[in-house]
Amino acid sequence: MASTTNTGIGLFARAFTVEGVDPNDPTAQLPPDASTKGVYLNIPMWEGPSVCIGKSDLLEIWVLEPGAGLETLFYSNAFPVPVTIPARFHLPAQYLQREGEISLRYRVILGDNGNEDTALPQRFTLKRQVPTNLAKPVFPSATLWGYFNCCSVPRMWDEVKVRVPAQPGRFSEDDECILDWEGFYTLNGVRAIPGTAGRFVKKLTKQDADSPIGFDFVLGADKFERYIAPMGKIEVKTDGKAGTTGSAKVSYALYRGGTALGKSDVGCPKFDRVVSGEIFHCDREHDTCKK
Prior knowledge:
291 residues, mainly beta, Immunoglobulin-like, 2 domains, 7-stranded mixed beta sheet, 6-stranded mixed beta sheet, 3 helices, disordered N terminus
């Protein structure tokens, strides 16, 4: 094949750049907002553009999305003589919804002689930015001040319920909702407790999606020792004093067909297992509220 001149068909049109991509990044990661705003390609003016009045050079830009088997032509435009091109070309966000490796290339077809010149594909990494557009989770069994305590009903060692509030039009049957949970030694979500991070997946039924109150994740008795009990244990603070406070950071994300549609703000329930005047914490063995 020939070079990039208009004397033949070439495969080595000049490389382009994508705005916001660090040239020193070996993974060529696209900007964080690419999945919501798209990206701009800077394609250099090709060598030997057409000069015959009435002729046009055709520019085509192709994208191969992560996991796709075929390229998609997302831009095609003819530039008449005298040929001038825009400073940049927009790749819409609709082509940037799948995480992984994405490939881009362009092709020029000269109007004077029909010769083609195609750029080698350039590969980039896409990490999709998930918008925070879902309601914060709530905790039906907590107090008005957001506490789970020894007298919560149901007891925290039996069940802690996390509710995703109803949001009409947001959920559909077979969507996946993924809940992230992590415990902390303090009441304000500071100083994570090792081993308390967990992720729970729920595939939505039609009843879940259409519910007027939302749907629940339930951390049952089998989850207590790992995810909840550590928040009531003694921690020696940096000032040498002991503390018994605890909280969790809880959020969820919504997926449809493997694509993240949104995530929630973080909810922060508090846990109080201190029994006044006692050296033990309330649990199944020490249920101080049992009648």
